[in-house]
Structure formats: structure tokens, C-alpha cells
Amino acid sequence: MYKIVASDLDGTLLTPDHKIAPYTRDVLQRLHNKGEHFVFATGRHHIDVASIRKNVGIPAFMITSNGARVHDADDNLVFSRNVDPELVAELIKMVKDDETVTIHIYRENDWLLNRVDEELAKYHKESGFSFTEFDSENPPLEDVAKVFFIRHDHDYLTNYEKTFTEKFGDQVSVAFSTPFCLEVMAAGVSKGEALKAVAELKGFSLDDCIAFGDGMNDVEMLSAAKKGLIMETAHPRVKATLPDNEVIGSHADEAVARYLEKHLLNVK
Length: 268
Hints:
There is one protein chain. The protein is an alpha/beta fold. It is globular, with a radius of gyration of 18 Å. It has an eight-stranded mixed sheet, with helices on both faces. Strands 8-7-6-9-11-10 form a six-stranded mixed sheet, covered by helices on one side. Helices cover 33% and strands 24% of the residues. It has two domains: 4-80 and 189-265, Rossmann fold; 85-186, Hypothetical Protein, Haloacid Dehalogenase-like Hydrolase, Chain: A, domain 2 (2-Layer Sandwich).
């Protein structure tokens, strides 16, 4: 049976209003009491996730910024990989004049935006983590976990995806966390590689892991784990990329918690 459970947050473990529901919290606590190791695996910032973890009330490793950061249950940083400063500068230069796209930067302790977007507040009601503005003419370049770009038009952002991939090649990792959020990390960064590192730190392997996700930034993790489960509301690209992976229910119905209760908690 699996010893490590890794789950994405938005669109997967969290409800549509981006919160941990009481039933999910109860299942995760019972899972911990049974001796299972839970891992939050998300594109979110580690400060944000630490608040969600505190609300759940279990010790857990955190894979954040799509694998660019890994913290243990005591908030010790155990893995970190930054985007090269020159690449950060190039990425921002390529997009800064596009007023239809919001540029975000995650650094070790900061979430920075090139312009205010109050719509984002709904994602962080539970944690209270918030952003500050930066000057796109003089952006911070050091200690950058990821740069990401938001516009509510997936097809528009796929043009940037293609441009970044063609220009930077294997110097970066590029993935959509949602259809409207395109993310760029350092080369080799993914939730899958981070999960492998967490498993080894705990004395296990990927064969001991089960994972849940819904975004293109989850594909490596869902492929790497012994069993990777896709949410029914996942983007079609995820299902097309992983056609043999099992699809479960919606985050609105707390499908992750229901699966865990049925298959890990109620197993004799």
C-alpha cells in the first residue's frame, strides 16, 4: 500500500472557493494518524501553503512553486532551485509591454506583481498571503523561484508558451498550472522531481507514492508516482497527455478525500 500521498491544491484538494473543507481536513488527519505521509504539492508559494497546512493540523512536507522549493514539516528548506537572473530579465522584458497580461514573481519570501489584480484575493482568503507591486522596468532578478503570467485567455497564453519554449529550450521548465496561468521555472524543476526527492528523504521511493492533480504542472508528478489520479475537471490537455490514468470526481465533491477514505483508510 502507498506510504506517501501527494496532492495539488487548487482544483484538486481545495474546494471551488479555495478552502480546505471539514470532511477533507478530517480525512487528512485520520490519514496522518494511520501513519501515512501527506505532501502538499502545488504551484503556490510556501508561505501561503504553510498557512493551509496549519489549518489542516498535520505535519507535512510542502512542494511549492511547482517543485522549485521543498520544505519539511518543520518549515526547513530542503530543496531550492532558482530561475537564472538573466532569464528572469529576458522573460519580463518579453511581456512587460503587454498590458493584457499580469506578470508575477515568487521569491523566497515575496509574491510580486507588475500591476494590482484584486481578483487574486479569492485564492488566498484562507492563508492571508498577499502580493506587493514591482517595477517591471527594474525587476528583482535574484532568488526567483518562478515567474508566471496570467490572462483569462488560454489560447493567447499558449502563444507565449511556444515562444518561451522556442527561445529558452531546456534552460527553463514551462507549464500551465491553470488554463489562465503560464509558469516558468528553472530547468529540471517539476513536482515529479520534487516528489522523488521527498520520497527518498523519507526512506521510500516513487513506487510508494500516490498523487492527485488537475493541471499541466501536475503531469510529471502524476506520471512519476506509482498511481496518479486526475480530477474530472482537469484540463483536456492533462487527460490527453495521460490517457491511461484513472479519472476521479470533482474538487467540489471533495473527491480526493473520498478516494483516500475508501482506498487507504477503509482497507483492512
